Amino acid sequence: MPVSLCDDQISSRVARLRAAVAAAGLRHLAVNVTAGADLVVALRALRPLDVSVVLVGPTTAAQALAHLRPQALLDVGEERIRRITEADGEPGGRPAGVWIFSSGTTGTPTPTHWSWHELSRGADWLDAAGGERWGVGYSPSTYAAVAAVSQALGRAAHVDFLTPTEFATRAAAHYDVVAGTPSFWRMAALHLGTESARPRIDTVSMGGEPVDASLLRLIRAAFTPRRVLQIYASTELGRIATVTDGLPGLPCSVLDGYGPEGKALAIRDGELLVSSGPGSPYLPTGDLAAVHDERVHILGRQGDVINVGGTKVVPGHVARLLQEHPDVAAARVYAVRSSVLGAVVGVDIVTRSENDPDVVVQRVRAYARRVLSPPEQPRRFAVVDQLAVATSGKAARGG
């Protein structure tokens, strides 16, 4: 959905929402955003009030919300406020700002507090100061969306909230920045129309999932951006590292000490650890990582590992190799229950081939036997039109 930051309707919504929250005397409230425009309106309306906001999305559990004890629930789209409790003040002495829940793709979503200053980085959100046009493919209740919109509010006049299909069919549109998950970019490239009808992009930004060489090749061929940014970040710590060299993985220099974002990374027992600053301990990220070809490659989430008869199989590693096959445009790897081995590997494939799906499966199966170990080889193949995606915008887990 396109949002013009100069639009009178958006400005009116911002003014009404700010007046309603101020009149109700609310200092700590849950805010339900179901669309990108809702997020823009909420951030611009509530920041000047210096209130504490709990961002609510489709994966937010009622129990988690109750733990933070907001005074009211604000539905931005319907402009409705419903009282929940009479509690005053911010939880745990935290300053005003925004509580954002993690995606919960491999566990229970947990909240992290971000101050208004941290999100805005000093930018003025009240007026559209820039002339840029941004596209955002992240789910509006995620940290990635909040971070992208926070940047756009200080630089852009227009922000479009896009699905992969909508973006791919924006004939001749020009964007300064488009941000989304690797799954968003892979599916957008597959839905492109003719070359003359393709959107033009200056900067591609992506994060939230591992990026492999096949995806970078696909993006360059489909969109020819001037630069590609890979963002390694988390809801809890924000941006940890930014890769601008156009290569898959992180440069090994990220393991040498504290980088430009003030954070340091290390690998221990195959897991990536992060320190939030000098003197802070290294804590597990839940991401599996390995060094090869002088790059740090994120293999996937520890919680996604498939136990095939006692052998640990990393879905991201299997998907990366399968996506190198010329018939495979995208692959989603998951566990399939097995009465003998406990679990085996299954895969959904989006193909760029015009061959019969059965032929594609035969070819990919033969390729898998050559490049994957026996436990890693998929036992279930399915050719699909598009990959299943979770509400976070990342590839869905499970079969």
User: What helical percentage do the residues reach?
Assistant: 25-40%
Strand content: 25-35%
Average pLDDT value?
Answer: 86
What class do helices, strands and sheet pairing give?
alpha/beta
Please give the largest β-sheet: 7 strands, mixed
The Rg value, from CA coordinates, equals 22 Å
Q: For the record, give the distance between the C-alpha atoms at the N and C termini, rounded to a whole number.
A: 30 Å
Number of helix segments?
Answer: 10
Coarse morphology: globular
User: How many strands appear in the DSSP assignment?
Assistant: 23
The strand line-up of the biggest sheet is 1-9-8-10-11-12-13
Q: Which segments are poorly predicted (pLDDT under 50) over 5 or more consecutive residues?
A: 88-93
Give a brief description:
The chain is of the alpha/beta class. Helices cover 25% and strands 33% of the residues.
Layout: helices, strands, pairs:
Elements: E1 2-4, H1 8-24, E2 28-32, H2 36-46, E3 52-56, H3 62-68, E4 72-75, E5 80-83, E6 97-101, E7 111-115, H4 116-120, E8 132-136, H5 143-155, E9 156-161, H6 164-168, E10 174-180, H7 182-190, E11 200-207, H8 213-223, E12 227-234, E13 238-243, E14 250-251, E15 264-268, E16 271-275, E17 283-292, E18 295-301, E19 306-308, E20 311-313, H9 315-322, E21 328-338, E22 342-351, H10 357-371, E23 380-383
Parallel strand pairs: 2-3, 2-4, 3-6, 8-9, 8-10, 10-11, 11-12, 22-23
Antiparallel strand pairs: 1-9, 4-5, 6-7, 12-13, 14-18, 15-16, 16-17, 17-18, 19-20, 21-22
Helix pairs in contact: 1-2, 7-8
